[in-house]
């Protein structure tokens, strides 16, 4: 089974499914999103969508209606293509530990989501995810996905590793190969047994090759679509691996095992 470990709701879901078909991807982990860069038809439109993204990555909460819209879009996509999508749900990080635990139990576990994410703590504040990890640990092997590229800092990656060791039952996934800090990310994930490294939007081929070589059982193929492309992301993995067990693991077998998929 080929699984894209990182994608966001598209407008439309049908367009996204066509991309998955073109890439030969069976299923995709799907996160909610407020920005929709795929809607832009010119530079001005893209700037507007990216401004929403920048606000989210900086810790801006946006409007309540913006979040409700994103959640409705996620629910609609999952309902339209349950055989293709694997739903993950993010949770607010600016609430108290008890409220976060209640949200995880009610909205994530109670509604049948497969994991939590993509979490986007503000730069320098990765420690905010600790109550989420605690709640995820209370529910067994509930994976948690955290944004790994800019504006995530090198110190944030170290914090994630420290928290990962504190909650060893929780599969903790760092996205986007840790961005510009990819070498540090590889080292930290290598030394933290319950951490995984998702490979989307990598701009350096040998970074993907080295990450897979160092972490053959804990690297995950992902596209970060619509910011990346599943065809190109899969081609990158296949370019740096030989046919066989390692490639199969990266392209989906590892994630299928984590999620308990047949």
TrEMBL record:
InterPro entries (UniProt xref): Amidohydro-rel, Metal_Hydrolase
One Pfam assignment: Amidohydro_2
Record's protein name: Amidohydrolase family protein
Organism per entry: Streptomyces polychromogenes
Residues annotated as domain Amidohydrolase-related: 3-252
């Amino acid at each position: 089974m080929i699984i894209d470990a990182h994608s966001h709701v598209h407008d439309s879901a049908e367009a996204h499914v066509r991309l998955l078909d073109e890439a030969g991807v069976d299923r995709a982990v799907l996160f909610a999103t407020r920005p929709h860069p795929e809607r832009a038809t010119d530079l001005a439109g893209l700037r507007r969508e990216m401004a929403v993204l920048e606000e989210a990555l900086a810790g801006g909460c946006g409007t309540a209606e913006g979040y409700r819209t994103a959640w409705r879009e996620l629910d609609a996509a999952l309902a339209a293509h349950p055989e293709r999508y694997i739903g993950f749900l993010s949770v607010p990080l600016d609430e108290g530990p008890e409220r976060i635990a209640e949200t995880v139990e009610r909205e994530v576990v109670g509604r049948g989501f497969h994991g939590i994410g993509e979490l986007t703590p503000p730069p320098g504040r990765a420690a905010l995810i600790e109550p989420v990890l605690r709640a995820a640990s209370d529910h067994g092997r509930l994976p948690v996905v955290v944004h790994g590229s800019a504006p995530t800092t090198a110190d944030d990656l170290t914090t994630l590793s420290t928290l990962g060791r504190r909650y060893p039952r929780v599969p903790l996934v760092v996205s986007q190969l840790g961005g510009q800090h990819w070498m540090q990310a590889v080292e930290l994930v290598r030394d933290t047994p319950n951490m995984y490294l998702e490979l989307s939007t990598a701009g350096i081929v040998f970074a993907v090759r080295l990450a897979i070589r160092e972490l053959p059982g804990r690297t995950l193929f992902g596209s970060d679509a619509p910011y990346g492309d599943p065809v190109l992301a899969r081609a990158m993995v296949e370019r740096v691996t030989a046919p066989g067990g390692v490639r199969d693991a990266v392209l989906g077998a590892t994630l299928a095992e984590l999620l308990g998929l047949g």
